[in-house]
Design goal:
It is a single chain. The chain is α/β, with parallel strands linked by helices. It has one domain: P-loop containing nucleotide triphosphate hydrolases (Rossmann fold), CATH 3.40.50.300. The chain contains 8 helices and 10 strands. The strands form 2 sheets. A 6-stranded mixed β-sheet has the order 6-7-8-3-9-10, with helices on both faces. The protein has a 4-stranded antiparallel β-sheet with strand order 2-1-4-5.
């Protein structure tokens, strides 16, 4: 029996390896991510979390193995799939001398958002991330949390199927982190597939539907968060990595 595209994994990874010179970062990694999942990638620095996201996005090339996103092979067909992937990292990747609205207008043209939809889409995204009142302020005047919220709006511009978050909480205070929590929950509830690299175990347990722990470039644990409590995840992390729980 054939399966429809909606029933197939949106991300399929087979035998993925990545090395920098003689230094292996990912080792024969296999992974499937279903549509609508929110996957938290946990692991120590150097475990391969950020490298995996960069490979999925097509920013770097694998040393071996295969990556499919929506049926397209990465990075060979990256141009076809680029509009279906949004990425948010700990770096804002915004133009500080432009306003929030001007930043989104620039990226909307870059993502080929139809001109007839552009203005309304930008206003809706600004409202969604709570920046309507600061739409015409220069990004250089924004706090770290505001810049991160605008980065999420930028990533959502092409209405991507897959969103990748690389340590999105870096540098955020408690209030800004709570705002980001809510934006991520809303984004997941709308059906976006999300992969988030983070070292914040408790947030992973609360937001994600699935937790994957990487250790030395391999999957050491892959479990639904429904099977984990906030205290249990710390114990499972320590057992999987053989190290201390990240603070």
């Amino acid at each position: 029996m054939t399966t429809s595209p909606e029933e197939r994994p949106i991300v399929t990874i087979e035998g993925l390896t990545k090395a920098y010179g003689y230094l292996p970062v990912l080792r024969s990694l296999d992974l499937e991510v279903q549509r609508g999942e929110c996957v938290a990638l946990l692991g120590a620095n150097g475990s391969g979390k950020s490298t995996l996201l960069r490979l999925i996005s097509g920013l770097i090339k694998p040393s071996g193995g295969r990556i499919l996103v929506g049926g397209w092979e990465m990075p060979q067909q990256a141009a076809a799939v680029r509009g279906h992937i949004g990425m948010v990292s700990h770096k804002a990747l915004l133009y500080s001398n432009l306003t929030a609205r001007e930043n989104l207008a620039f990226f909307a043209r870059l993502y080929n958002v139809p001109a007839s939809e552009r203005d309304n889409h930008i206003e809706a995204l600004l409202a969604r991330v709570g920046l309507s009142k600061r739409a015409d302020s220069l990004v250089r005047t924004f706090s770290r949390g505001m810049q991160q919220r605008l980065s999420i709006a930028r990533a959502l511009l092409p209405k991507p199927d897959v969103l990748l978050f690389d340590e999105p909480y870096t540098g955020l205070d408690q209030d800004a982190s709570l705002v980001l929590d809510e934006i991520l929950r809303q984004t997941h509830a709308e059906g976006h597939t999300m992969l988030m690299a983070t070292h914040l175990l408790e947030r992973a347990a609360r937001i994600a539907s699935r937790v994957i722990i990487l250790n030395r470039g391999q999957i050491a644990l892959d479990v639904p968060t429904s099977q984990l409590g906030e205290e249990d995840i710390a114990l499972r992390y320590a057992a999987a990595t053989g190290g201390a729980v990240p603070s």
